[in-house]
Amino acid sequence: MAKKDTNRKPLSGNLRTHSCHATKHMQKLNMVTVTNADGSKSKMTAREYRNLKKAA
Predict the structure, then answer these.
(1) Share of residues in the chain with pLDDT > 70 (%)
(2) What is the spatial distance between Cα 51 and Cα 18, in angstroms, rounded to a whole number?
(3) Which of 49, 24, 23 is nearest to 34 (CA)?
(4) What span, in angstroms and rounded, lies between the C-alpha atoms of 16 and 53?
(5) Which pLDDT score is estimated for 44?
(6) Where are the beta strands (DSSP E) in the chain?
(7) How many CB atoms lie within 10 A of CB 43?
(8) Which of 5, 23, 27, 31 could disulfide-pair with 11, CB 3.0 to 4.6 Å?
């Protein structure tokens, strides 16, 4: 099982219709599984992974 390495949480809000009815809505994170150099797996967001690759 991959260990989660991020502290970010999903965004929440409302979907609004033309008549102003509100329905709860969540935007989940784009999580990817990354294999580390020592063979262990971890989960991080795609943005964090991209920045990690750029820095290396």
Answers:
(1) 98
(2) 39
(3) 49
(4) 38
(5) 93
(6) 3-4, 11-16, 22-27, 31-35, 41-45
(7) 17
(8) 27
